[in-house]
């Protein structure tokens, strides 16, 4: 599998570290213990299209959101994680 880093170009997957589900969001209320327990311990295991967090560990060190099909490993999109986070926050910097 090759991942097209937006900064370095296509690289082998051995240069990257998989860091988990990119759709999980941290609870905003610190008193929500059930929410934090679910945030830390509960993860989906989807078959199909999935957004994942990767780091280009042996390259530019950038954090990436990779959209790929977990059944075929076909990569649909690679985005800088910062851009995804800013879009989620409504474009604030």
From TrEMBL:
<dbReference type="GO" id="GO:0046653">
    <property type="term" value="P:tetrahydrofolate metabolic process"/>
</dbReference>
<protein>
    <submittedName>
        <fullName>Sarcosine oxidase subunit delta</fullName>
    </submittedName>
</protein>
<dbReference type="InterPro" id="IPR038561">
    <property type="entry name" value="SoxD_sf"/>
</dbReference>
<dbReference type="InterPro" id="IPR006279">
    <property type="entry name" value="SoxD"/>
</dbReference>
<dbReference type="Pfam" id="PF04267">
    <property type="entry name" value="SoxD"/>
</dbReference>
<dbReference type="GO" id="GO:0008115">
    <property type="term" value="F:sarcosine oxidase activity"/>
</dbReference>
């Amino acid at each position: 599998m090759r991942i097209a880093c937006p900064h370095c170009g296509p690289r082998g997957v051995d240069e990257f570290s998989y860091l988990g589900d990119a759709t999980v969001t941290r609870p905003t209320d610190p008193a929500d213990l059930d929410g934090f327990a679910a945030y830390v311990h509960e993860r989906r295991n989807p078959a199909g299209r999935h957004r994942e967090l990767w780091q280009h560990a042996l390259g530019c060190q950038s954090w990436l959101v990779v959209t790929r099909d977990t059944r075929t490993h076909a990569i649909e999109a690679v985005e800088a994680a910062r851009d995804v986070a800013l879009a989620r926050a409504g474009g604030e910097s």
